[in-house]
Amino acid sequence: MAKKTINTGSALGPYSSAVVAGEHCYIAGTGGFLPGTSTIVDGGIEAEIRQAMDNLEATLARAGFALADVVSVTCYLRHTEHWPVLNEVYRNYFTKDEPARASLVVAGMPANASFEITCVAWRGKDA
């Protein structure tokens, strides 16, 4: 099985933004970066989460997947008090058959980000 890599131009290190392996797509940590840059969007935590979600959706599309294909998500927040904002924004992207999700609070993230999201998508046939 061949694998395909996707690079969005926002990676802060030697890694791919996404890797497609068969019917799965593995998305690396995706932040609220202005597309193709390592600059976090202005406007606070809500704007940052929205931009990260938009970036996630765009990366999935480049890989040939959609949000509806996402089966597992991990979210990273800098501050616990941002949890309600995350939920408010998140539910606008995953509106039906929400994926499994884990959320963690971490002390620091690259580029002084306050939010990051990663996921696994699957477009295979049901058993």
Helix content: 10-25%
**What is the ordering of alpha helices and beta strands?**
EEEHEHEE
Q: What does the main sheet amount to? A: 6 strands, mixed
Assess the beta-strand content as a share of residues.
25-35%
Quick one: CATH superfamily?
RutC-like
Number of strands: 6
For the record, the count of structural domains works out to 1
CATH fold-level topology? 60s Ribosomal Protein L30, Chain: A
Q: Looking at the structure, what is the overall shape?
A: globular
CATH class label: Alpha Beta
Mean pLDDT: 93
Distance between the termini: 20 Å
CATH architecture: 2-Layer Sandwich
Secondary structure tally, helices: 2
* Order of neighbouring strands in the sheet with most strands: 1-2-3-6-4-5
Low-confidence stretches: none
Round the Cα radius of gyration to an integer and report it. 14 Å
